[in-house]
Amino acid sequence: MLVYNGFLYCKHEVYENKIVGRCSDYKKIACKSRCHTTSEDESGEIIKHTDHSHTQNAAKSEAKELINEIKKSAENGQFPTRIIISTKLGEASASVINWPTSYY
Fold first, then answer.
1. Average pLDDT, stretch 82-101?
2. What single string gives the DSSP state of each residue in 19-54?
3. Residue 69's closest CA among 49, 53, 90?
């Protein structure tokens, strides 16, 4: 997943030199926004993006980033998972802590 300007994108199409992400709310609310980036072999920078049909949800984006950070730290294996989770949750904003887990 890609987080850009407070919106989440899922990888949709991969071409030789670019990746197209689709809004993560595509199926839920039919948002047609797309984000084009250079390939991962290149810089991975944003080439262009289109507007969304909804407002951003900062808590949802932050929660996804937090989950990814927890997973990366757990893969490292340096600390027990419970320590990683409690540390990362301690750094999270109140809006993420109160975000319903069904949305992750």
1. 77
2. EEEEETTHHHH----EEEEE-TTTT--EEEE---SS
3. 90
pTM of the entire structure?
A: 0.63
Return the DSSP state at 5. T
Say if residues 73 and 89 touch (Cβ distance below 8 Å): no
Structure tokens, 64: 């996804």
**Residue with the two structure tokens 């991969």:** 14
List all residues 6 or more positions away from 10 whose beta carbon is below 8 Å from its beta carbon: 1, 2, 21, 22, 23, 24, 26
Chain segment 19-76, per-residue pLDDT in tens: 999 998 899 899 999 999 998 776 778 888 899 998 877 777 788 888 888 888 888 8
